[in-house]
Design brief:
Length: about 850
């Protein structure tokens, strides 16, 4: 039993550890947000200056629907295997040592009669539901055409009816395209698409259902204000603006207000249920401004507040009308709660019971009790005090009864005292937006990552607990496969950082002479030499002593900016010869050197090169994944060291591809991560299948595959990290053969509810024991306890009577012992 108690001790050490360390706060600015958006836009569109067609995402979804699914192929050796979430819960927030955070959240909706039933809509994490007031959450939308969220709305007259507007309207290029509007009539169990993005718009800001007639549904978004009079069957556009806000008078549903974003600050009013709209100008500064958000008093609907961002993103003004919009008064223009990013995070709400009390937020939340004239700060995003912590970058504020809810880049928070103290509801929400992740090949329970807005994080128990290590934006991640306590990560704008203590703290080792580059700059460790790393911006640098390299020593420049001819976006290194290097750029070039940079050959004509993979056995073979929406130009292959490249895009959808990984051993497989999940080919790209069993329809920013543990890791930008255990295909392929060794496989699915399958192999007849334990080491079940013949076996564990949490299963057969963890999530 000693192994199982070691695992349990490891689990508890996360909570008992005081090793939370920050190597300086790496905080986000409006400038860095803009730079991040440019980076994402270039990759998504296919290169600098390119524009992704408006209907590209919707068309790609249709193309994907025609691609075979791996799980439905009878001859597929991976068809019965499912992806496993290794980020099924929120991330522990070490700054306060008492909170959890999740990913960016844009909307929240409440059951009209049951306060414990709440829905949220996350940026690229879809819709989540709680039935116990936020203690536990269940995701509802993983398999929809889009899980990029604009708004979630509930019919007040029938709470089983939900409307989900896809496409996140926060004027950030990180905001993924939507796929129209979906409707559920069974409280989110199933959904039907009721409006296409090509008609309703690719980004949705707000959906409102008329409480007096639920057939009347309004939608505001990037294509304007729409209305349906038959519960979403048909829609009519009555106002063509980029609408960032929509209000309904609670006393008179025929009166509506909307406002604009994306470089405007217009406010409109309709008094005839949306048929016609009047531009409101009296007292407003409409010649400038970048985004306007509105809030109406539930007690006196003549009181309306407008939070307006200036063209620079700072506060232009908090305005108020007390006569339903006829004229407006500037209340405050000096308390800049927006910092300089009000075009991105801008929220306002009125306190129930007092039309003179208003809360406004951008970077933090502020309260006024005198109509906005003076504002007092109620949250501090960088605080270590859990009482007044609510994550930075607020996108939505609202009340349900007397409880205030705040949706931000860190998830969802609530306050029962108008913002004085806060409680997070993120412990069971998995919506983190990873840029990259990697795992320890000697202990696959140890995973490291870089997240947007949440920088670097670690887990030592397969994701049951993730611990945030630093704040800000985190990028590409690599674990040294030999000296595994060495972990490499990055912050933005030309950064590479090293940790020698398993990700607890990091030191900047960026070569001081490097210049230019992207928001995130690529670096790669040579697959045949863990001491060698190549780092590239507009130029290329290499070290053969990465564990001791510093900003001023250990690096050699192997290419100047004029040689590469653009900003480096991908790197591939030969396993057999680390002097042979492939460099891809954002402007569609691939350069190759075979002599450590003494000479380079240049190849042009690609879209944005997002990732490269060099064949381990033949470094003349290299694969390239590319962004953009140019047909048949997504995955390329060279077999002659880069002299000639051929497209192996095959039947893939016409959408951006961000990552690529190769299984070298038989059966050979290519995996590619896209804006629409993961795809796989077993015939060098002649045909591709969707590889998404148990996997959400989400952007995949990074893939890692290692031959020894045979684990494929996917870092998604909105639903955390997932792993696929490719090693299990061996037991499936040889199901009718006698195994040659003992083996205990990872259960699937995992996490599970309420049952899961445990597979194991016995090479010879003998007595076999499998027991189930809880996290304290208590034996719960003696699942198998008898003599078995040699063979491959499966055991179905039913956990209906157990509560959510981590459990362990242990196999003992002769001298063989092995223990694995599994997670029950109810």
């Amino acid at each position: 039993m000693k192994n199982i108690f070691l695992i349990i001790a490891m689990f508890f050490s996360i909570y008992l550890s005081s090793s939370y360390c920050q190597d300086g706060e790496e905080n986000e600015s409006s400038e860095s947000i803009l730079q991040r958006e440019e980076f994402i836009n270039e990759r998504r569109a296919g290169g600098p200056g390119k524009i992704l067609p408006r209907n590209a995402y919707e068309q790609a979804i249709m193309q994907k629907s025609g691609i075979p699914e791996d799980k439905n192929l009878s001859n597929s050796i991976t068809s019965t295997i499912s992806w496993m979430s290794v980020n099924p819960v929120g991330m522990f927030y070490g700054v306060t040592n008492n909170n959890y955070i999740s990913g960016r959240t844009n909307s929240i909706a409440f059951h009209p009669s049951n306060p414990n039933i709440i829905y949220i809509a996350a940026a690229q994490g879809g819709v989540w539901k709680t039935t116990d007031g936020g203690v536990n959450w269940t995701v509802l939308t993983d398999n929809l055409g889009s899980i990029s969220s604009g708004d979630i709305a509930i019919d007040p007259s029938d709470p089983n009816i939900l409307y989900y507007g896809t496409g996140e309207l926060n004027y950030s290029l990180d905001c993924q395209y939507g796929d129209g509007i979906y409707k559920s009539t069974n409280a989110g169990i199933s959904w039907n698409k009721i409006a296409t993005s090509s008609f309703i718009g690719t980004y949705i800001a707000k959906i409102i259902i008329d409480p007096s007639n639920s057939n009347n549904v309004y939608c505001a978004g990037s294509s304007g204000v729409f209305k349906s009079t038959n519960a979403g069957i048909n829609w009519t556009n009555f106002l063509t603006i980029n609408a960032s806000s929509l209000l309904m008078n609670p006393s008179n549903p025929a009166v509506l207000y909307t406002s604009s974003g994306s470089g405007q600050s217009f406010i409109y009013r309709s008094i005839n249920a949306g048929l016609t709209w009047q531009l409101l100008t009296d007292g407003l500064t409409i010649s400038s401004g970048r985004r306007t958000q509105l809030a109406i008093s539930p007690d006196n609907p003549n009181y309306i507040y407008a939070s307006i961002a200036s063209t620079s993103g700072a506060l232009l003004g908090l305005y108020r009308t007390t006569n339903g919009g006829d004229n407006w008064t500037l209340q405050n223009s000096s308390t800049n709660y927006m910092s300089s990013q009000g075009w991105y995070d801008n929220a306002v709400t009125v306190v129930p019971g007092d039309p003179n009390s208003v809360l406004a937020a951008g970077l933090d939340v502020y309260l006024s009790t005198n109509g906005g004239v003076t504002l007092s700060q109620k949250t501090s995003w960088s605080t270590g005090n859990t009482n007044n912590f609510s994550h930075a970058d607020v996108h939505y504020l609202t009340y349900h009864g007397s409880v205030l809810y705040c949706c931000s880049d860190g998830g969802v928070y609530k306050s029962t005292d108008n913002g004085t103290s806060w409680t997070d509801l993120n412990a069971k929400i998995s919506t983190l937006q990873f840029e990259s992740a990697d795992y320890d090949p000697t202990n696959i329970q140890k995973i490291y990552g870089g997240c947007q807005d949440n920088n670097k994080q670690t887990t030592t128990n397969s994701g049951f607990v993730w611990l945030q290590r630093t704040t800000g934006d985190g990028g590409y991640t690599i674990v040294d496969p030999v000296t595994t306590n060495y972990v490499y990560g990055q912050y933005v704008n030309g950064s590479i950082q090293r940790s020698a203590n398993s990700g607890v703290s990091f030191t900047n080792i960026t070569p001081s002479g490097s210049s230019g580059g992207l928001f995130y700059n690529p670096y790669e460790m040579a697959p045949g030499d863990h001491n060698t790393v190549v780092f590239a911006r507009a130029d290329v640098w290499k070290t053969t002593t990465i564990q001791t390299a510093s900003t001023s020593s250990g690096w050699t420049q192997i290419a100047v900016s004029g040689v590469i001819g653009g900003n480096a976006s991908a790197i591939g290194i030969s396993k057999t010869d680390p002097d042979k290097i492939y460099i891809g750029t954002s402007n569609g070039k691939i350069s190759v050197t075979t002599n450590n940079g003494a000479n380079w050959t240049l190849h042009t004509g690609f879209p944005y090169v997002s990732d490269l993979w060099v064949d381990f056995n033949d470094d003349n073979i290299c694969y390239a994944a590319c962004g953009g929406a140019t047909p048949d130009r997504h995955i390329f292959k060279t077999s002659d060291g880069g002299s000639n490249w051929v497209s192996i895009t095959g039947n893939l959808p016409n959408i951006g591809f961000n990552s690529i990984a190769l299984r070298q051993t038989s059966p050979r497989m290519i995996f590619v991560g896209s804006d629409l999940g993961v795809f796989q080919s077993t015939n060098e790209g002649v045909n591709w299948v969707t590889f998404n069993t148990g996997f959400p329809n989400v952007e995949v920013y990074d893939l890692k595959y290692k031959e020894v543990p045979k684990i494929l890791l996917a870092a998604t930008h909105g639903r955390g990290c997932f792993t696929f255990d490719v090693s299990t295909i061996v037991s499936i392929k040889n199901a009718n053969e006698i195994p040659d060794k003992f083996a205990l496989f990872q259960n699937y699915p995992n996490p599970f509810n309420p049952s899961t399958t445990i597979k194991y192999e016995i090479p010879a007849k003998g007595f076999v024991s499998i027991k189930i334990y809880d996290v304290l080491g208590n034996e719960l079940s003696s699942a198998i306890n008898r003599e078995l013949q040699a063979g491959s076996y499966e055991y179905s564990f039913d956990a209906s009577k157990y509560t959510s949490g981590v459990y362990f299963y242990r196999l003992i057969a002769g001298d063989y012992e092995d223990t694995k963890s599994m997670m029950l999530v109810k």
